[in-house]
Amino acid sequence: MSLAPKHSWFKSGLRFCGSCFVTVLCWALWIMLGGLLAMMLYVAVARELPVPGYVLRRIESELARSGLILHFGKARLDPTGKIQLENVSVRAARFEEPLLTCRLLYVRHDLWAFLSGWTFPEEIQIEGAALQLPAMLSPSGTGEPVVSDLAATLRHQDHLWRVEQFSGRLGRLALSVQGEFTPVRGRHVQPDLQLITSRYLQFARQLASVKERLEAFADPSLNVLLTGEGGGPNRATLLLTASGARQPWGQPVTLGPFAAATSLSLDNRQPQALQFQLALRRLEGPAGLVAESVRAQLGAEVSPAGLSGRFGTLRVAAAELRNADDRLDAPLLRAELSRWPVVQAELATRLAGETLSAEVESSLAEKSARIRATGRVNHDLITRVLSRHTPRAEPYFRFGDPVTFDAAAELAAGWRFERLAAWVSAGRLDSRGVPITSARGRITLEGRSFHAFDARVTLGELNVARGSYWMDFGTTDYRMLLEGRLHPVAIKGWFRGDWWSDFWNRWFAFSASAPPAGEVDLRGRWKNPALGDNFVRAEVKNATIWGGDFDQVAARVFIRPSFVHGLELSGVRAGGREQLGGSFKRIGVPGTRDTARFEFDFQTNATPAVLGRMLEGRADEVLASLRFTAPPQIHAWGAMVGNGPRLVPDYRFTARVDHPLEYYGFPLENARVQGAVQGDEVRLEQIDYGVAGGTGAGKATLTGATGQRQLGFDLYLNKARLGDTVHAVQQYDAARRGAPLEPTADSKFVRTAASSLLNVSLTAQGNPADLASFHGSGRASLTGGQLGEVHLFGLLSQVLSGLTLSFSSLKLDTAYTSVELDKGELNFPDLKVTGPSAVIDARGRYTFASSALDFTAKFKPYEQPGSLLAAAVSIVMNPLTSMLELKLSGPLADPRWSFAVGSGTKPTIPTAPEPPAAPSTP
Question: What pLDDT is stored for residue 863 in this prediction?
Answer without folding.
Answer: 46
